[in-house]
Amino acid sequence: MTPILGGLGAAVMWALSTLSTSRSTKLVSPVSVLATVMTVGAAIAGPFALAQGVPEALGGRELAWLLTSGSANLVGLLFAYSALRVGKVGVVAPINSAQGAAAAVIAMLLGERIAATSGVMLAVIVVGVVLASLSRAVEAGGEHDARGALLAGIAALLFGLGLYASGRLAGDLPLAWIVFVPRLLGVLVFAVPMVLLGRVRMTRPALPFVLVSGVCEIAGLAAFTLGARGSVAVTAVISSQFAALAAIVAYFAFDERLRRVQVAGVAAILVGVAVLTGLQA
Is the pTM for the entire model greater than 0.85? Predict the structure, then answer.
């Protein structure tokens, strides 16, 4: 029961984070959203990490993986937020959920062998991304879902790198430090410089959405970790369905409409991610 509850908790939290970000990035810039989310995340994770003290296993190798994880997550979030600013949640969220598939590809490129079935699922996900990105121009600004899909695809690759780096640390460092250091990096190298340059602008209507995004991101990770202690496979498959939850809510709450070919693409991504996650876990 714990893996199911943990996976559901993570899916709900990440869906809320995605939906909140889709609103906030239309009110303020992705740079402003990211700087605030990093600050909120560091403020939440910091006390837990500092209470545990500096891990004895923290050496040069571990620090390098932490920096890799933090950098990939930081830049990935910037691309993801930019994607949500111009694209539909129903397209962007499923592509972002392919981060696990991206991690599998990175592991394969670095020498890890994967089963033939996993290779088929990766192909299904790629086809799904292509179909989901097919769209006519929307609105007077001439934005295309294709642009959001491209940005989301880059974000998924970066998130995959971050997941791979975090996975290399999972057995060596406490979770609090794996979460805290990347967010501290985000505050020091991104949030503070952006504030000093005057690039961060926060409005009263956007602030609640940004705070929800920051809190839900951390809460989702905590729920995922608790569930994974019972079963990584079950928790990962259920939590990856945050994209489906976000797409369904966006359909009713934001009146988002997708073409049939996009619906087929989104379905292919969700099925491919679920099956591949179960195979890899």
Answer: no
> Dihedral through CA 149, CA 150, CA 153, CA 155, nearest 10?
-110
112: tokens are: 């890890």
pLDDT digits (tens, 9 = 90+) for 108-165: 777 767 667 767 776 777 777 667 656 554 444 335 567 888 899 899 889 888 877 8
Return d(Cα 147, Cα 135) in angstroms, integer.
10
The region that residue 198 occupies, defined by phi over 0 for left and psi between -120 and 50 for alpha, beta otherwise, is: left
DSSP 156-170: HHHHHHHHHHHHHHT
CA-CA distance, 23 to 186, in Å (whole number)?
Answer: 22
Angle at 8 between CA 7 and CA 10, to 5 degrees: 65
In contact, 145 and 138? CB cutoff 8 Å:
yes
Whole-angstrom distance, CA of residue 273 vs CA of residue 160: 13
Q: Which residues pair with 96 in a beta bridge?
A: none
C-alpha distances (whole Å) from 182 to each of 66, 190, 222 are 7, 11, 15
Q: pLDDT per residue over 83-93, tens digit each?
A: 999 888 888 88
